[in-house]
Structure formats: structure tokens, C-alpha cells
Design a protein that fits this description.
alpha+beta, Rieske Iron-sulfur Protein, 2 domains, 4-stranded antiparallel beta sheet, 3-stranded antiparallel beta sheet, 2 helices, globular
């Protein structure tokens, strides 16, 4: 690893309990399973929810918003194999779970974050709005600007 960075303490990770980590602007989810650990991109590919708010069933990380699934060991969705969370190379050194910071930087260049943490809703913005929720945009407009517009 060129630039190792610690994302978690292995001893503090509960078995199959998604744990949040942030490296630069990239949200990550860290999952311990047995003596192994996975560090995956931490946003659901469906609507951008934080996967650390989800749960694990068997070998699948389940998004807490709409139940999308991703294998904890690969990041591949069992439901739709074309949906894949980026899996970062990780290793355990002593009690540290480390990844390569350069790998995260390269991911950010290839996949820029859709979240502006300083804007309204920041890291909780809906990056993939759907027509099934036609009033969400209007509600956000009112929340940001009131009735002045």
C-alpha cells in the first residue's frame, strides 16, 4: 500500500455489523465477518442511502432504506449482479483495518461524490430522485427557500 490509512479498529467491529467510515469525501462501510473484513463504498447505488445504516442478513449487506442487497465479501448484488459496490483492498495490521488512501483518491476521480456536505441536506441528499415521488423536489424547495419563491 502506498498511503495506508486506518479506517477502523478490528477489535471494535461487531460481527456482521455495518460500521461507518469517512475517507476524504468518500463514505465507506466496514464489515467484520469472522477473521475477515470488507471495506466497501458506503452508499447504496439505488438512492444513495448510507449503508452503515443497514444490516447484514447471511452474506448480504441490506440497505436500510429500500432493502437493496450487496454481498459483504464482494460488493456484488445477488439480486442484480450488474450492481456492484466498489470494494477497497484492505488488510488488518495489529488491530488496525487499513486501506490505501490512493485507492480512495483514484475512486473519487473516477466516481466523484454526488454529495455537497455543505449544501441543504448535504450527505443525505437524494442523488437519484424517482418519478414515483413527484412532490419531493417541491418539498425540498420549500424547506430551502420557504414561500419566498
Amino acid at each position: 500500500m502506498q498511503k495506508p490509512i486506518t479506517v477502523a479498529k478490528f477489535s471494535s467491529l461487531a460481527e456482521k455489523e455495518p460500521t461507518y467510515a469517512l475517507v476524504s469525501p468518500t463514505d465507506l462501510v466496514v464489515i467484520r465477518y469472522g477473521d475477515e473484513v470488507s471495506v466497501l463504498y458506503g452508499r447504496c447505488l439505488h438512492r444513495g442511502a448510507l449503508l452503515s445504516d443497514g444490516h447484514v442478513v447471511g452474506h448480504n449487506l441490506i440497505c436500510g432504506l429500500h432493502d437493496w442487497d450487496y454481498r459483504i465479501d464482494t460488493g456484488v448484488s445477488e439480486y442484480n449482479n450488474s450492481e456492484v459496490l466498489n470494494k477497497f483492498n484492505s488488510k488488518i495490521e495489529g488491530d488496525d483495518v487499513i486501506i490505501d488512501a490512493q485507492e480512495v483518491i483514484d475512486f473519487e476521480v473516477a466516481t466523484p461524490s454526488p454529495f455537497n456536505r455543505d449544501a441543504y441536506l448535504g450527505e443525505f441528499a437524494d442523488t437519484h430522485p424517482e418519478s414515483t415521488e413527484p412532490y419531493t423536489g417541491y418539498i425540498k424547495e420549500l424547506a430551502q427557500n420557504g414561500l419566498k419563491n
